[in-house]
# Entry
Amino acid sequence: MHEPADQSFPTHDARRADHDRTLTAMIALEAALEAAAPGREPTWRAGVLDALGVLDGATRDEQSNASSPDSLLSDIKRTQPRLRTRVRGLRSQYAQLRDAIVAISAELTERDDGNDYGDIRQRLSWILTALRHQRALESDLLYEAYFDAFRSDLSTETSR
# Structure
């Protein structure tokens, strides 16, 4: 029996909860972006800003938790030197996405000069796509780290 694997379940559960909150916020933002905008820009903008605020909070919490010393990414960085650069890269990319979320939110809050809703949709859609890509890269890294540590596929272990 391997003790550290048993101890990692709470951090895995925390990571799952963070991802679930972020995914819910992403879906809400997509719904706000899809709402009709012509002729009702102030209402559309308010809905987008509300959803963007929820996404901002969810990604801020997720980033904070993923950076904590007891997170799965911190454990990988500490125990698997070969993967340290990828962990740093993921964290750096996530910080850039967070900066983009904050910048667009500030822009929409500060300026109500009839921003082009098509442009806003495009920019926020890019951020949503980048967040999905980030999540996929993180999942790949976690599975690779698990395989390297235990020489077993995670799906094989969970079916036992």
Summary: The CA atoms of residues 18 and 144 lie 21 Å apart. The radius of gyration is 19 Å. The helical segments are 3-7, 9-34, 41-67, 72-79, 84-110, 117-150, 154-158.
